[in-house]
Amino acid sequence: xxxxxxxxxxxxxxxxxxxxxxxxxxxxxxxxxxxxxxxxxxxxxxxxxxxxxxxxxxxxxxxxxxxxxxxxxxxxxxxxxxxxxxxxxxxxxxxxxxxxxxxxxxxxxxxxxxxxxxxxxxxxxxxxxxxxxxxxxxxxxxxxxxxxxxxxxxxxxxxxxxxxxxxxxxxxxxxxxxxxxxxxxxxxxxxxxxxxxxxxxxxxxxxxxxxxxxxxxxxxxxxxxxxxxxxxxxxxxxxxxxxxxxxxxxxxxxxxxxxxxxxxxxxxxxxxxxxxxxxxxxxxxxxxxxxxxxxxxxxxxxxxxxxxxxxxxxxxxxxxxxxxxxxxxxxxxxxxxxxxxxxxxxxxxxxxxxxxxxxxxxxxxxxxxxxxxxxxxxxxxxxxxxxxxxxxxxxxxxxxxxxxxxxxxxxxxxxxxxxxxxxxxxxxxxxxxxxxxxxxxxxxxxxxxxxxxxxxxxxxxxxxxxxxxxxxxxxxxxxxxxxxxxxxxx
Length: 490
Known about the structure:
It is found in: Membrane. By secondary structure, this protein is an all-alpha fold.
């Protein structure tokens, strides 16, 4: 039974091990050793809970998250939320552009600017996959996930990390939300928000609510709906457990593979060079294998696989939100081309602005662009999480599939804590961009905080009022469920 529902979870899990995750997890390990292991664990548990709710919403209501939100909001708010989600997808795509371009540069010695433009050609991959069918896409993605997992299991086992410290790091502490020390341009709190933003991504909630409907279910049979919710959640949790393992390995790799302080360049370039340089490695066996060049090559191959995986899921999500929010449909290749070309712009600007700087400064700038793109994802997350929590806790909408009290309170706790930490960190984040004086940057940050708070309030009010209409008009699943139960009794 589980096999029939296996697949969508893999597509969702891809978003939890993209190049953005690589940047935040490896940098977190290098900068703060094993402290942020608990952040990866917490963000993975948050992901499991929220993805379960998203999949359940899709199966029960037969609407994806974008459609469900748009049904309850006015046109103006629908457009605002659509634009915000599009920006979140582009922020994800920036990390994919950088990761894929660097992988091409490392594997084939292609200069960075041409490599950035070559990443646009992944639209051809999408055209091919669109012809082979959805189930085969799931198989391709699963194979690439396996490649990534095996590469890092191999490299981490060779490095002989301090497993006791790694396991102690899984226990949450106040250190993960401290604003000091600042190492390599990030604090523990910034690293935490980057990991959460790279892990619990808003576009994955939209995607899961849509692809959970790809399995045909007889909605006139309540037991079949229960089975679909149960096995889809199980598939998702298994795949997200693998994603947690990959992210934990990435952080352990950042903390353990290299000699302390040996890697001055913490970008993907620096990591690749370090894996090829026996003097920088910490374990004799790792040193021996590094001399063959296989460690660095495998690293670059896994990086390329990670970027291509995320390309597939990002494009599918873009289609979902465009159709759901503004009822506009585009061919997958056209959608991909537009998104990728827009995402290429900040990467090219970053490369051009640092052209006269040292090589290490150029690499650092690209790394910080990836880090900050993931922090932006954490800001966009509440605008999808809060509506999801409100809708899946509506008895009229969900019937017996309404959130259990424990999941309901945990979901709200996650959303509120994440929102608070993001807003709390915003002033220091703006100051770190150095686009203005400290005082001006702080004022702008507080203005943005007010705008974000107002938008969240607007969103929650409209979703709540929309949910009341569902209850009044008996248009949710609860009414349908009662009919199904009555028919079953007859």
